[in-house]
Structure formats: structure tokens, C-alpha cells
Amino acid sequence: MRAERRPPSRRCVALALAQTLALGLPLLTPGAGHAEAPLSAIDWLSESIMAPPSDAVSEQEVLPPPVPGAGEITVEPIDAPSVEAVGLVSAEQAGLPRDFWAGSTTETLTGAIAALPGDALPALRDLSFTILLTEFDPPDDTDGQQQLFLARVDRLLDFGGVEQALALIENHGADNPDLFRRWFDAGLLLGREEAACDALLRRTGLEPSYPARIFCFARAGHWSTAALTLRSARALEFITEAEEELLARFLDPELFDHDAPLPEFTLPSPLVWRLLEALGDAPPTRLLPPAFSHAELRSNAAWRNQIEAAERLTRAGALPPNRLLGLYTARRPAASGGVWDRAEAVQQLDRAIQAQDGGAASRALPQAWARLAEIELEATLARLFAEDALRLALGEEARALAFRMGLLTPAYADLAAAHDPATPGEAMLKALALGGEIPASGQNQPAGMTDALRDGLTGQAPDGPAARLLERGETGAAVLTAISRLHDGAAGDLRGVAEGLAVLVRAGLEDHARRAALQLVLLDRRG
To answer: CA-CA distance, 519 to 407, in Å (whole number)?
Structure first.
């Protein structure tokens, strides 16, 4: 049982206060930084930044000690409208109108972004990422508070798109506590926290929390300064007991019994996860939000952990398929079952494709499809191999499978146009891809699905939230809502299927609508 903590003596507080002032640490009331709600709706963000209290010593009165190698940086105000317009691709490149957000309030848009499903069909997932990363004119009610920009960054982080979120922040600049927290955590998860730590130690006008400052001092090699900071924070009760124990072990693990359990954290922040990792006790990332999986893509992680992390992130749309292929084929599997069977199946197919061996590919393709279907990565397999497989002399069953796989790729229309349907099912798929009359029978679909697909792809939207938004001229909010409606449709809401597809078609996104329709038919996502 942990002994009760005694309040610090006056002499101890005075000493710690002197040390704090010498280090240029902010003066805070006890518990500050823990009592208030997190700045972000994402519960797992690190408490890396604290808002200075009104009685804090000013920057002019308390300056930090110089940090070797640290230079000066300048923070300049950014014009509010341009903040919301920041993106990684232009609207023209994305195939979307520049005024995509027009007609909608920031509140409506942020709500629709927050509602985007994380396990949507691949076509809808790709569209979601495109929207979140595109430069659009800001909504009319933009007030400089950056709510829409933060909503975009947060949804990317929720999806596991840490690389994309980090690029978006760096394109804008982490010039306030809200953005700095996300920048700091994204860097931690990717193993690229150097820039954020350097900025933190240079005091950019932000107020770093004690755990973040201690971590960054230690990371920069200033171990004695980190230890002194910890003693000051501990004496003034500015950190929790769990933080104190974790940081003390991180700074000097030899002082502790290696068999003694570490503090338990229900949902560790990226900073806590990195500290636990350094002590050899990090929880598996498969039990944490998708963004944490990036931490296991680093070279110091076991190969199996790297593959499983890449599978989760690829399924979420946060990692390109070739990254997963590189991990699958990095070496020979040393065991069987689960991830090893998937790696072996992909390796066999990859060798057959590289050798242009139609017979070997005909045998390997169904095996690889079955293995990756177990973890809902069929579309990833299709993007990697379908077009190359269709160029080979495949057996009848393998060719039929390769055709269906090809319809899961962005090249679906060209592949469908070149294919002579051999069954009613293939005729239906070709019609979905090219816009012909959709047969009433063909694929084994739930009752009414064919009618929903036909109505949706011809733009006949039943009354619903997405359709009403589009009628009011709120294109962006309508498209975001249509993505959610189509996700509901995959679980059996046929009105959602018709409405979602119709709204995408009427908004000029017929390509995305047809890809989604094909995936509704070809992929079993009904639970």
C-alpha cells in the first residue's frame, strides 16, 4: 500500500521555488494542468501545455536557462480566414469545388466531421481523407478560433492519420496550445518529437507541463536539469503520484526494483506510452486508439508488431498499401497462423506476379484473398495486385476473382469496360461500374438493395438529412453526411444507401458513388 504523501515543508517549498525560478519554470497553483478538462475532445492527448494562470510570473521576469543548440524562433499571428483554408492539396487537385464549405456554419461542419465513420467502406474512407486534407475557402462565419481546422486535425488523428495530421499542422504552424498539443503528440507517435521538444525548451510563449518539459530535457541529454525539474514539481505537488513515479523511473530506472509494478494508466497519452516503452512496459497498441499503432512501425519494434500495426493503419486508410506490402515481404515468416499466414500468402502471390506465372498466380490469388478478407483488407490486396494479375493467363476461377478485385480499385471503369461478363453477377457489376441498366438479379444481395443502388446512382435521393442539406446549397455538409448515411446503409439501411449515393452523384462525385456502390456489393460489411 502506498504511503500517504506528506505536504512539503516551508523550507522544501522555498528551495523548490528557488529552483523553479532558476529554471524559468512557470509558477502555478497546485494541481493546475490537471483540474481542467483537456483542450481537445480527443481524450488521449498529452497534457503537454498548460495555460498560465493570472498570477504567473511574466516571461520578462522569468527566463529559461539557455539550452545548448537552441536558437530563436518567431511566432507571428496568422490571418484567421487563411487558417481554416490550410490544406495539403488544392480543391482543383481533389476534384472538389473551392467553395465546398459555403452555406454551412462552422458548427454544422465540425459536427459532420466528428460524425464521419472510422470503419467506412474504402471508397468513403478515401473521400473522407481527401476532404480533410483539401484547401477550401473558409465558411462565412469563421471567427479566427480555428474550430474547423482543429476538427479536421482531430478526425485525422482519430482515423490514425498521424502523418497527415502532422503535415497539416506543420503547414499551418503550431502557434497556440491547441495545435502544439497535437503537434507534440503526433511527433511522439512517429518518433519525430525533436522539433516539438526544441520549440518547447526555447519557450515559444507556450507553457509546457512538467512531464513534457522533463521528457524533453532528458531527450536533449540534460539529465540533471530534468531531475531537478522533477524534484521541484514533486515538492510543489504539481504532478500526480503516478506521474512522479513514472518520470523518476524513466530518469533513473536503476534506483527501482525491476519487479515492482509500474503505475497503471487506463488510457495512456502518447507521452506516457513513450515513457512506459522506455521502461519496457508499454501496453500493446492494438488495445489503444489507431494513432498509437504508428509507434510500432519504428524499426525497434518486432516484425510481427510492425505488420499488425501496418494492417490496422492500412485498413483505416492512414497508410499506403505499398508500406504494408514492404513489411509483408521483408523476410520469411518463421511461424504459422494469423499474421504469418497472411504474410506467406501475400509473398506467394507477389512471387507469382513478379515471375508472370499465371498458374502460380491462379493458386496464390484465392489464398491471399481469403487471408486478407479475414481482416477486411480485400481492397488493399486489390490495389496491390489486381491489374497485374489480370494481365496473366489465369484459370477461370482466378480470373473471375481478379475481375472482382479490379472493381475495388480506382481503375474499376477501365477494367469493367474491357471485360466480357460471363455471369449475371458480372453483368450487374459491369453496369454498376459503367452506368448501364442494373439488372434486377445477379449478385446475392439483401432484398431491395438493387433498387437502392439504382435509385442512388441515378440521383433519386429520398428525403433525409444529407439530401436536405444539399437542397439548401450546403454541399460540404451534405457530402459529409452522405458518407455517414452510406456507412449506415452498409449495415442494412437501404434508404441510407439510396440517399448517400444520390447526394454524391448530385454533388459531382459520381466516381466516388460508383466505387462505393461496387464495394457495397463486393465486400461483406454487414457485421
So the answer is: 8
Bridge partners, residue 134, by sequence: 89
Q: How far is it, in rounded angstroms, from Cα 222 to Cα 277?
A: 20
- Exposure b/e, 404-422, CB count within 10 A at least 16 = b: bbbbbbeebbebbeebeee
Instruction: Look at phi and psi of residue 203 and say left if phi exceeds 0, alpha if psi is from -120 to 50, else beta.
Output: left
List helix spans (H) across 376-523: 378-390, 396-406, 412-417, 424-434, 449-457, 465-471, 475-490, 494-506, 510-522
Q: Is the dihedral of CA 453, 458, 462, 464 positive or negative?
A: positive
Which residues pair with residue 89 across a beta bridge? 134
The structure's pTM equals 0.85
172-187 CB burial, b ≥16 within 10 A, e <16: bebbbbbbbbbbbbbb
Cβ atoms of residues 456 and 502 within 8 Å: yes
- Residue whose C-alpha cell is 453477377: 425
Amino acid 445 reads: Q
pLDDT, one tens digit per residue, over 379-401 is 999 999 999 999 999 999 999 99
What span, in angstroms and rounded, lies between the C-alpha atoms of 229 and 455? 65
pLDDT tens, 202-253?
865 778 899 999 999 999 999 999 999 999 999 988 899 999 999 999 998 8
Which parts of the chain have pLDDT scores under 50? 1-41, 52-81, 527
From residue 41, alpha-carbon distances to 110, 162, 220, 290, 387 in Å are 12, 16, 30, 16, 42
Taking the C-alpha atoms of residue 304 and residue 71, their distance in angstroms, rounded to an integer, is: 41
CB 291 within 8 A of CB 118: no
CA end-to-end span of the chain, whole Å?
A: 45
User: Is-contact 429 404, C-beta < 8 A?
Assistant: yes
Going by the DSSP 8-state scheme, the letter that residue 206 receives in this structure is -
Cα 220 from Cα 471, distance rounded (Å): 56
CA 312, chain centre distance (Å): 10
